[in-house]
Amino acid sequence: MTDNPLGKPTVYPQHYQPELLVSIPRQENRTALGVADDKLPFRGADIWNAYEISCLNHKGKPQIFIGRFIFAITSPNLVESKSLKLYLNSLNQSRFDSLSQLAETIHRDLSGASGSNVKVSLQLPSDIIVPDLPAGVCLDELDISADEFEANKTLLVVTDDSLFEEVTDEVLFTNLFRSNCPITNQPDWATVTICYQGRKIPHEALLKYLVSYRQHNDYHENCVERIFCDLMEIYSPQSLTVEANFLRRGGLDINPVRTTETGLNYQAFPRYTRQ
User: Fold this and answer.
1) How far apart are CA 208 and CA 205, in angstroms?
2) pTM for this prediction
3) Does residue 246 surpass a pLDDT of 80?
4) Which end of the chain, C or N, has fewer beta carbons within 10 A?
5) Closest Cα to residue 15, out of 113, 98, 101, 92?
6) Active-site positions?
């Protein structure tokens, strides 16, 4: 973490520097959750959208793209977000003969930093379609009282057993989620979506729990893994998917997905108007 550029004065690079990428081991957070890398209780991916990708073509004319990077959750490392921003900026004055050459370069460097194969796709801004909201039930109009703001899973515990008699299949989401960067303490905003089958999760309890992350300091990926593990522990759903669409910072948004499902199309993962 001594190489982590977050919270430090930064000189923007003027030439290609793959060495700017900073790797952060995943296992430390998973150890705190009682999860081992070789026996993960979930599947999923970390889906990054990058809005500030620019380079020069062979004639020196600037080119701009929107990128999607899909990191396997089995990769040993996260890539620190500011280091990725600086790395992408280091491409600005570099010349590439083709889009495929640029994509291959980014793929090689991100795969090396994460320790696993990263899927890279680049598109023109005009090719992107943005939906407004998730398809599901929004929790944001619930009239709850909240006074817990530090990731408290006990808020999920409901003593009325009759609430668990109903078995359901539903999609719930909130735009009220906020956590904080563990290095800078800057707020990270997200739309969090919960898709599950099983005993009905009380909506008020779930919203209170998600709101309790408001002063919680952790990386995006770690927050989603904690939410997934807490919901599995308390409610034992037959199937569960937790998605978080974090708002962009530094031209990047991060969208972790943790799920019990197989065959999800992470390349088609949506981004919303707030992003």
Assistant:
1) 5
2) 0.89
3) yes
4) N
5) 92
6) 181, 188
